[in-house]
Amino acid sequence: MTQREAALAGRITPEMERAAAREGVTPEALRAGLASGTICLPANPAHTSLDPLAVGKGLRTKVNANIGTSADFPETGKEIAKLKLAVAAGADAVMDLSTGCAADIDRSRKAVLQAAPVPVGTVPIYQAAVEAQEKYGAIVAMTAEDIFQVIERQAEDGVDFMTVHCGVTRESIGRLQREGRAADIVSRGGAFLTGWMLHHGKENPLYEQYDRLLAIARAHDVTLSLGDGLRPGCLADATDRAQIQELIILGELVERAWEAGVQVMVEGPGHVPFNRIRANMELEKRLCHGAPFYVLGPLVTDVAPGYDHITAAIGGTMAAVAGADFLCYVTPAEHLGLPTDQDVREGVVAARIAAHAADLAKGVPGAWEWDLKMARARKALDWEAQIALAIDPEKARRYRQDRNPAGKTECTMCGKYCAMRLVGEYLGKDLESCQ
């Protein structure tokens, strides 16, 4: 029985109990959200190290960190180190996007699942493409059976959620071709499937055999993350016919997943001008019936390589305020190369800032209390409390220690002219006593 099926039956599972406790909501409220489809709880029973966590309406905005090997950097150990660093920095989930050799992908995924206390996601078409390249000498030579074998293998290993690009269809690609784009397709999964479809003149197997996909997901309680294979890869392509056509298809597939007892969320853009973000979020929620929305960024400008964690945080705040539930981090290395450990940390922290800023605006339980505690600690010049309350305590402590003499009450920005200290001395007095 999946978490959704249990919720529909009125049953509260141990995973729901734990996830609700972490959110500060009642188990019944969480169960009701699962039953309505506005909340998902990615928790494959085979992922034994998982501390369950829910995503969706009324809950804290979650943050995902991407890790994974590549052909140029195949070392699994380095990715496990990034996993631990991402979790320590506050990531709520990780995705293993490994694209090294096929054997390394299996090894990396199993190591990540064993080490990860957070939900783990994958993009199965990546592994299917790598295996096809090794086996046949060409990605387009992979078969539908190859794709579904990888999906089943990953589900058996314990993957909690999978990105599946089911909305990249012959119809949506035709719309892209007729309208044209500045950057075409930037999703790797979308590109693999588009190349396969155009080469064979056939429909996307993930769409054509969607019921088969649902059967695998239901058997292992894998949450389907319906991927945006036609997401805009630059501002000029945002909200075009191809993107919207794919979203319409995904909305239909959401309903079919729910009918099958399968949990589902929907992925979204991408690169979007700031003034169009709210409309994109509202459109997804309308077309996809309130399913949890998982966004990459969105990045609000194309011209900031090296700083795309900032452009994504700007867009991510607006997206989450307008309805997004899950933010995929973007690192400073986006568009430039595989992220380092430091890039991972910066990406997670930037996304967490965006998520928390949105939670303040949405009135998520506990968000305002956190900021109020910080305000009181600053008023009291309680540096230890300020550091403990910081989103990144490590960096806060380093700045405090490096830039202030030991034992100094005020910071070196204001020194003896510290507003907090001066006002603290006089604010409690009446005006006559100050003359």
Describe the SSE topology:
Layout: H1 3-8, H2 14-23, H3 27-36, E1 39-40, E2 55-56, E3 62-67, H4 76-88, E4 93-96, H5 102-115, E5 120-122, H6 124-136, H7 144-157, E6 161-164, H8 170-179, H9 188-200, H10 205-208, H11 210-220, E7 223-226, H12 241-259, E8 264-268, H13 277-287, E9 293-296, H14 308-321, E10 326-328, H15 341-362, H16 367-379, H17 383-389, H18 393-403, H19 419-426
Please give a quick description of this structure.
The protein has 435 residues and is an alpha/beta fold.
Q: What's the count of strands?
A: 10
What's the helix count?
19
Whole-number count of domains: 2
CATH architecture label of the largest domain: Alpha-Beta Barrel
Q: Please identify which CATH superfamily of the largest domain we are dealing with.
A: Radical SAM ThiC family, central domain
Measured as a percent range, the helix fraction is 40-55%
- Sheet/helix structural class: alpha/beta
Largest sheet properties:
8 strands, parallel, barrel
Principal-axis shape equals globular
**What's the CATH class of the largest domain, please?**
Alpha Beta
Remind me, CATH topology of the largest domain?
Answer: TIM Barrel
Percent strand: 5-15%
The string of secondary-structure elements, in order, is HHHEEEHEHEHHEHHHHEHEHEHEHHHHH
Q: Termini separation (Å)?
A: 75 Å
Task: Provide structural commentary.
The chain is α/β, with parallel strands linked by helices. The protein folds into two domains: 42-362, Alpha-Beta Barrel (TIM Barrel), CATH 3.20.20.540; 367-434, no CATH class. The protein has 19 helices and ten strands. The strands form two sheets. An eight-stranded parallel β-barrel has the order 3-4-5-6-7-8-9-10, surrounded by six helices. α4 runs parallel beside α15, α8 (170-179) packs antiparallel against α12 and α13 (277-287) packs across α14. The longest helix is centred in the C-terminal third of the chain and has 22 residues, at 341-362. The model has no long low-confidence stretch (mean pLDDT 95).
